[in-house]
Amino acid sequence: MKKNTAILIFANSAEKEAERKTFLSSDVFSALNHQTLKTVEKSGIEYFHFSEKNQVGSSFGERFSNAIENIFNKGFKNVITIGNDTPHLKTKHLVDTVHQLEKNDLVLGPSKDGGFYLMGIKKEHFNKETFLKLPWQTSKLQKCITSIVTSKKLHIKLLGILNDLDVLEDIKKILDSFKAIPKSVLKILTLLICPQKEFFVDLTINFKKTFFAPNSNKGSPLIFA
Where in the chain do CATH 3.90.550.10 domains reside? Predict the structure, then answer.
């Protein structure tokens, strides 16, 4: 299945993202872009990155739809789309999506704002006209997609809900969660909320590495290297 599936990283450059989301700096997006690529490469799935340099269209919906169509035109039967603003996205989400597409028509990773952080779709169910009409970048997107899929009697698999970074408040929600987050991203996000915490972030990281060995507790670790 992997050879029939490609990942589409639909994410602008760090500089462009910082222009659009002014509450985050280009340094933050550089870290997020780096982590996203690292996560994708670990999956072993072929991937394509569409930034503002090769996106085509005047609206988000057009650019996103054209990018998906472009991947399908390369001969792939399935496309898994992700962005660069979900720090909790793991390689296992991508690999699980590949397996779920074997028995489902659509896989959706819902975000808490009503959108999605991941979508796995088969070529046979991709309708560009329908995609262009979706309420992109609104809180209605997830429900609208689910409604369309249900009306067509297709099978949809929902992954766990995650937070993405759309507004400043999302940073605190991500930091307050108990889900694992890469050390580099954890540090840079923490400094945005409270710059004077840099020393304590380093101290916490070192403490956890020293005293919390693997499988020492049943909860999820806060960070990983």
Answer: 2-158
* Percentages (nearest 5) of helix, strand, coil residues in the chain: 50, 15, 35
- What's the pTM? 0.79
How far is residue 114's CA from residue 205's CA, in Å, rounded to a whole number? 32
Question: Any idea what the Cα angle at residue 151 is, between residues 145 and 153, rounded to 5°?
Answer: 105
Topology (CATH) of 2-158: Spore Coat Polysaccharide Biosynthesis Protein SpsA; Chain A (3.90.550)
pLDDT of the chain along its 225 residues, tens only?
Answer: 457 999 999 999 989 988 888 777 788 888 889 999 999 999 999 999 999 999 999 999 999 999 999 999 999 999 999 999 898 899 999 999 999 999 999 999 999 989 999 999 999 999 999 999 999 999 999 999 999 999 999 999 999 999 888 777 777 777 776 567 777 777 777 776 665 444 444 444 443 444 444 443 434 333 333
* Angle, helix 168-176 to helix 183-193, in steps of 10 degrees: 130
